Amino acid sequence: MSSISSPRHEQMSQFKVEQGQLLAAGYSMSEISQLLNRPAFYVYDRSVINQQVASFRQHIPARVKLHYAVKANPYWPVVEHLKPLVDGFDVASQKEMLLALQSGMPVANISFAGPGKGDSDILSAIIAGVTLNVESLGELQRICTLGAQTRNTPQVALRVNPAFELKASGMKMTGGAKPFGIDEEQVLQLLADIAGMPVKFRGFHIYCGSQNLKPESLIEAHQHTFALAAKLVAACPYRPEMINLGGGFGIPYFAGERRLDLAPVGASLQQLLQQYDTELANIELVIELGRYLVAEAGLYACQVVDKKHSRGTTYLVCNGGLNHHLANSGNFGQVIRKNYPVAIANRMVQTDLELVTIVGPLCTPLDILADRMNLPQADVGDWVVVYQSGAYGPTASPQDFLGHRPVSEILI
Ligand SMILES: Cc1ncc(COP(=O)(O)O)c(C=O)c1O
């Protein structure tokens, strides 16, 4: 049986190894486990988050503001840590909105996107003064009606579903029929009426997709986005305050994937800013990112509780799996399951390897942490870690499934 390759831990240079132990912010996995008194956890290293923000600031022109998409990792210490580092927050629910508000982020820099907003979501955003990224004509109607029940004028931006798509994306959210945003053609018609509506129209949200590692695809999408933005601004009854240009910066998860090179993306944005200098003058431009800022800062760690051999396969059975980390199991948007980078955290320099499949404690064949990987020979009590786990972790996982203990988190 051949092994399925994945990026080796040597390529994951964001965490140090000392005396054979993988360290997160200076702590080994068993130390973090003792610190938390928990056998399975996510650890997020704040210095890696800082590096990712710095990389954005280094390459992307300062004219483009950085917003954090809280959905990627809504763990309160992470949100609090990012508050002074970014220019705004994008939220996708009332709960996330409350986190953003309580972080002290100015309300003008918080936007609320996502289809299916309930009346209570809309009302709370209107009361708080948070900008609602409007996903449909019906939602806009409800915003107007609910706004009349409050003392505030609803702040709205129109989320546009353009005709183009973000090529080579993990998730495409525009082009063709989509539940997200209002079709570009309908937006152009709507703009004629927006001045007469009981809302404060702030601008546009043009979000094309997620998890993109190809600079040329992002550059092409930015070219289309700027052209569309200029067309929309020209059709506006008054000058909008802001345009969200989307995001989609990805991180490498799988073998053969390369880190996104932001230099050409930044250079192209600089060129577009010059080209559209007049059309977009005095309008705030925003890029919103989730996983790019936090995913590489996170490790998921769990412990081997059993080692067994079944008809030629060696299994390491751990105390956590899909219930803690659905994305790593391949059941959160992957078409074909691939291994995330995985290591045995307390045997980082051990050279005797063995082919293993690592599984979690759930009675389902979907509960796979690593499929046929060559890893240092491990035993009960050893620490399995999954890299690139700082985004879409606990909150994207079915923690109640089978009722095992929930996973713990720590930012250090
Ligand atoms: C509107 C919007 N903004 C931001 C994001 C965050 O994406 P990512 O974590 O890939 O940056 C998403 C992801 O689905 C999204 O739908």
From TrEMBL:
Residues in domain Orn/DAP/Arg decarboxylase 2 N-terminal? 48-295
Matching InterPro entries: Ala_racemase/Decarboxylase_C (IPR009006), DCO2ase_PEP1 (IPR017530), De-COase2_C (IPR022643), De-COase2_N (IPR022644), Orn/DAP/Arg_de-COase (IPR000183), Orn_de-COase (IPR002433), PLP-binding_barrel (IPR029066)
Q: Where is the Orn/DAP/Arg decarboxylase 2 C-terminal domain?
A: 41-390
Q: Which UniProt keywords apply?
A: Pyridoxal phosphate
Q: Which Pfam families does the annotation name?
A: Orn_Arg_deC_N, Orn_DAP_Arg_deC
Q: Which organism is it from?
A: Rheinheimera maricola
Q: Which cofactor does it need?
A: pyridoxal 5'-phosphate
Q: Which domain of life is it from?
A: Bacteria
Q: Please give the CDD domains that the UniProt record associates with this protein.
A: PLPDE_III_Btrk_like
> Coiled-coil ranges per the record?
none
Under NCBIfam families, the record lists:
dCO2ase_PEP1
State what protein this is by name.
Pyridoxal-dependent decarboxylase, exosortase A system-associated
Asked if the Swiss-Prot or TrEMBL record annotates the protein with the keyword rRNA-binding, the reply is no
Q: Which family does it belong to?
A: Belongs to the Orn/Lys/Arg decarboxylase class-II family.
